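Pasting two entries for a bug report.
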Amino acid sequence: MKKYLAEMVGTLVLVLMGCGSAIFNFGVGTTAQVLTVAFGFGLSIVAMTYAIGGISGCHINPAITLGALLSGRIKGKDAGMYMLFQVIGAILGSLILYIIVANIDASSASYIAAKGDFATKTGANGAQPGVSVVGALIAEIVFTFVFVLVVLGTTDGKKGAGAFAGLAIGLSLVLVHIVCIPLTGTSVNPARSIGPAIFEAVYGNGGALSQLWIFIVGPFVGAALSALVWKTIGADKKKDKL
């Protein structure tokens, strides 16, 4: 149970800090805002990797858990429980943000009351203006593939980065966010998208919920592809453990 609770806490922190960086820095409309949010998510990964990595492996992302499952690094039962507790953690993180936002005077922070902007309300994902549903789906597949491949490679028992794996994974998430934020707000993590989408429905018209499938299907497909590629080019016959 400890490893499941660790996944819950880690995902809570990821959503709280990552989505919080978007909410309280007025969205992702400028280069500075994009970098702020990118580092908000990336540094959260670094912090949690070294905090709970020794307990659960610090997946804090159903896509990573799927990649680990398909790579033979985790059993099916554990994978299912990891995903469940990751989603619970994401919802709890979003709930904390919702409570904070609900208790800020809208007259002094009018952006919180603005409608139609997912990022400034809950950090929810959505295809950005001019990006089609297909384009958003492809982006999530491709960038999740890159991210999970980095995770599988850096955590490999023989070929990995050892103690530096957390830093490499966090920085790769920063990189992914820098490129993908203008396209989808960057998910590459179904749990990270589920929590904020639920609370976006409270503020808006449920637009994030209507697009949520993109941020579940895309990351899972990308993770499956990364596991296939890693098993082809990097894995030994002996199974590594994430």
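Entry 2 (this is the one that rendered wrong in the viewer):
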Amino acid sequence: MINVMQETMITVSGIEIKILRKKIKNMHLGVYPPNGHVRVSVPKHVSDDHVRLAIVSKLSWIKKKQQVFKDQPRQSERTYVSGECHYFLGQRYRLELIERAGKAEVTRLKSGKLKMFVKASASIASKEKLLNAWYRAELKYLIPILLDKWQPIIGKYADEWGIKKMKTKWGSCNIDQRRIWLNLELVKKPPECLEYVVVHELVHLHERYHNAHFKALMTQFVPNWKSRQKTLNQSTLAHED
């Protein structure tokens, strides 16, 4: 029998709380990167009022955790001009903007530069779209390599995978459809962080929840996964629109 998870939202002292009702025995509260969203997993019989009381008792802790995420370094708003810094696989690159009438494209140099070729009339939005397309292409190249490495080791295979921009998750896994999504922002993070997220989502095909079994599997496959998780969650965040 499929264990159907029930999801609801409540607001406590101005903080949005996602409630996940599952077939579990105890309540689990967490504040998650990259933006400090709050999620609580509870047994199916627990009422919203009971959850609300539990959240109130933890408000101070929640706000401290959210402040940690708020204080993380963030890039300033990107304007895509020469000399501006952009990240790729954990390394900082200086942008060199070259205006020309030919094809718009981005190339990466060993010297630590990203060259962007655009028309003189190119807008900030079009430059952003161009760089994101380059990022997406690079990630599409990297992900299959990691899947080919890890799927045989983990013993689970994704039927589909995709890339999209996500505000509150580095990755997600639809277990029933065996589909994995990875956050486009991962292409800016160190390679070991991307690998950690790929393994994390594949392990969900063994275990739906972040319970002791899930953590034991993560430790089995990637013994230093907690260190990688910490590196990812403390890394520079993108500018918020």
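Dev reply: Rendering is fixed now. As a check, the viewer should reflect this: The chain has six helices and eleven strands.
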